[in-house]
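Example S7 (structure tokens).
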């Protein structure tokens, strides 16, 4: 390694001696001739570095914006879900209240019966009506639950579509 260093040192000394022998005009021309390509190389390198930095900043901004959209979609989905659950709870409570009122009315009717046949008729009517109400109300709750699921996932589905579209586009150069 010392040999390489000495050889390079000898080359540098040789160039310095040649430049000194050639005179100041020759040295100035050598410096000017080597400065122009160095400046061009430096400017090109700086331009490429600037473009690369701008590209990274743009990518970071896009990623931030995309993440913000995801967070907004999650918040919207959670809001829709919570509102929907409250509505379903109200519907369930109303359904149970209706069943209770129907049962109380049937109990009152049974308390006034005068025969076993009349009691059987009231009980049969109560059971049939209760079953019909249960099927109707359960169907309504089922439909409301499906609508809630669709509404809850709508913002998330939209974000998924945006993600697919974004990922399928070629990267901007």
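Recovered sequence:
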């Amino acid at each position: 390694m010392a040999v390489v260093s000495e050889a390079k040192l000898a080359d540098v000394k040789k160039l310095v001696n040649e430049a000194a022998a050639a005179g100041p005009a020759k040295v100035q021309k050598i410096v000017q001739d080597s400065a122009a390509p160095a400046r061009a190389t430096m400017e090109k390198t700086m331009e490429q570095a600037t473009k690369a930095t701008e590209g990274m900043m743009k990518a970071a901004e896009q990623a931030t914006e995309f993440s913000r959209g995801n967070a907004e979609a999650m918040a919207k989905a959670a809001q829709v879900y919570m509102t929907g659950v409250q509505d379903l709870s109200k519907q369930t409570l109303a359904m149970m209240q209706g069943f209770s009122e129907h049962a109380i009315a049937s109990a009152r009717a049974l308390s006034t019966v005068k025969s076993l046949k009349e009691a059987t008729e009231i009980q049969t009517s109560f059971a049939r009506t209760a079953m019909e109400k249960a099927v109707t109300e359960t169907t309504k709750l089922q439909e409301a639950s499906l609508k809630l699921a669709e509404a809850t996932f709508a913002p998330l589905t939209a974000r998924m579509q945006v993600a697919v579209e974004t990922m399928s586009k070629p990267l901007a150069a």
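Notes on this example. The longest helix spans residues 24-111.
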